[in-house]
Amino acid sequence: MDDNAMKLLGAGVAMIGSLGAGIGLGLIFSAWISAIARNPAAESKFSKVGFIGFAVTELVLLMCFVISIMILKG
Amino acid sequence: MASLLEEFEIHPISAPLFSLGGHPVAFTNSALFMMLAIAACTLLMVAAMRPQAVVPGRWQMLAEKIYDTVADMVDSSAGEKARPFFPFIFSIFTFILFCNLFGMLPGSLAVTSHIIVNLAIALTLFVVILITGFVRHGTHFLKLFVPSGVPVIMILPMMIIEFFSFIVRPFSLSIRLFANMLAGHILLQVFAGMVAGLLTAGWLAGLSVLPMLANIAITGFEFFVAFLQAYIYAVLASVYLRDAIEMH
User: Among partner residues A52, A62, A69, which is closest to B235 by beta-carbon distance?
Assistant: First the structure.
């Protein structure tokens, strides 16, 4: 294989890590929804924690994306 | 492929003003959009609050809503003692929000899609956090890296982990914002490319309405992301600020 093909393959393989971020985001939103379902009165209190959890988990996905872009363009 | 990152290119829009260390320094499109963002949020805050009506009009309502959102967020995540830092967090929030929103204009540059802009803001925040911590707590501030109630054997590993997690915070803050803006804009371009490709595909041209509809939905989502990322940046900034003010 030539270098360019390896580059494209590597960029694709780097995005496999987004699998974990996808599962993690699903877990966070499912926990968030069930928390609201159990105690709808406290919904506003959950939003900040939910967004922080979302942001921290999403970082894994974004790292994969950045590395993938770096392989393609770097 | 080369055209995907074209919209993020920074190019000078004026003649070089002066040279710094051998590099010509010119007024770039990045600087232009940063100034536009600052002008827009200053205009919104100053002009909308000019009437100071008891029953607010539409613009005053918008300005008050932004203020209230950030004030509530700083109070709940940085604590009561963080009130002096409210203007700082508020400036960070509005600047990032307006930069993100200006990036949604066709043909414009999303300033926050460059990591150096976000990193500059994040490092400013960390200088503020370090100075606040050392001024308020003195050398006691270093206890931040030693969580209380840890067994003696675990103190050294915990110190290393806590120190590393502290150092990496500005980078994670800035990478999150920059990668979100980059990914969103690239997604819009990919779908726009699908529309263009299908339009020249002969009898399949009618299908191009599908990626077009998807692109409209994604544009709406990008406006949401622009607000959400500014909010998350500000929330995390105030959570980190709480460490310096109250320790943990």
Answer: A52
